[in-house]
Amino acid sequence: MCVVSGKVFPWLNETRTEEDFAYFVRLLLATDPSADWIFVVDNLTTHCSESLVRLAAELCGIEDDLGVTDKSGILKSMASRSAFLSEASHCIRFVYTPKHCSWLNQIEIWFGILCRRLLKRSSFVSLQAMRERILSFVDYFNETLAKPFRRTFTGTPLKQ
Predict the structure, then answer these.
(1) 146 and 8 Cβ atoms separated by less than 8 Å
(2) 104 in helix, strand or coil?
(3) Strands, E, within 14-159: which ranges?
(4) How far is it, in rounded angstroms, from Cα 36 to Cα 91?
(5) Among 57, 53, 59, which Cα is nearest to 27's?
(6) Contact 93, 38 (CB under 8 A)
(7) How far apart are CA 160 and CA 151, in angstroms?
(8) How many CB atoms lie within 10 A of CB 62?
(9) Using an 8 Å Cβ cutoff, are 159 and 16 in contact?
């Protein structure tokens, strides 16, 4: 989801491997190759994987030795990979939400919209039919409803 426009970038896949996520990031980057990109993600291991580090290094023109996964260099650990991916000087940067927080409230809001407007009380004859309906809804949402979500929390706790 683009927080600036409120548009959703659909990509439905049956698996969620590190290669899948790197491929999805590559697809997104292709929509505006000259832009600097900031991805806000949770701390899932696929969000700081070797595939993602290699993709970011390639697209940022970094030719340094990245090391060996679990042994040396940038690829040594999740911490070293996430530090590399978070580097502000890169044209592709990842910002990781704090652990134990609700991950990406904006996408959770959007999933709520999807559930209320499409999935609730729906039935589908096949997985393909559900996929097509979801993609059609995303197109409809992006054309007619997409806008940035406005934060309304003031920091004041609710009175009980």
Answers:
(1) yes
(2) coil
(3) 37-41, 92-96
(4) 5
(5) 59
(6) yes
(7) 22
(8) 15
(9) no
Q: pLDDT per residue over 83-107, tens digit each?
A: 999 999 998 999 988 876 654 567 7
Rounded to an integer, what distance in angstroms lies between the CA atom of residue 66 and that of residue 52? 12
Against a cut of 0.70, is the pTM above it?
Answer: yes
Question: Residue 78 and residue 46: Cα distance in Å, rounded?
Answer: 10
Distance in angstroms (rounded) separating the CA atoms of residues 28 and 23: 9
Q: Collect all residues with Cβ–Cβ distance below 8 Å to 1 and sequence separation of at least 6.
A: 7, 8, 9, 104, 106, 107, 110
Give the closest residue to 8 by CA, choosing from 104, 98, 95: 104
Three-state DSSP at 97 gives: coil
Q: What is the DSSP string of 116-148?
A: IIIITT---SSHHHHHHHHHHHHHHIIIII--P
